[in-house]
Amino acid sequence: MTTKALLDGGPDDLTGKIVPVTPPGQELKIPHRGGYEHYKVTTRHEDTEEGSATVYRWWERTEVAE
Predict the structure, then answer these.
(1) Which one of 24, 30, 47, 59 is most buried, by most CB atoms within 10 A?
(2) Region Disordered: which residues (predicted)?
């Protein structure tokens, strides 16, 4: 089952973005600009153009090791 996540916080070009989550979990790890943006699930839900989405709040960025 695929659900939708609404990203809250983090880089400006990711804020408010809706992404698929399979399966829903405690953390999202989004590849972005040579690293990863980490988001944690919240208890909030918002209606979006793509239907109801769980809000995931940004909490840290990590760099990709070379």
Answers:
(1) 30
(2) 1-32
Q: List residues bridging with 6 in a β-sheet.
A: 18, 55
Both tokens of 20, joined, read: 């698929």
Q: Which of 46, 42, 43 is nearest to 59 (CA)?
A: 42
One DSSP character per residue, 15-60 reads TT-EEEESS--SEEEEEETTEEEEEEEEEEEEEETTEEEEEEEEEE
Confidence of residue 39 (pLDDT cuts 50, 70, 90): very high
Answer yes or no: are the C-beta atoms of 7 and 15 closer than 8 Å: yes
Tracing tokens 């909490």 back to the chain, one arrives at: 59
Domains in the chain: boundaries: 3-63
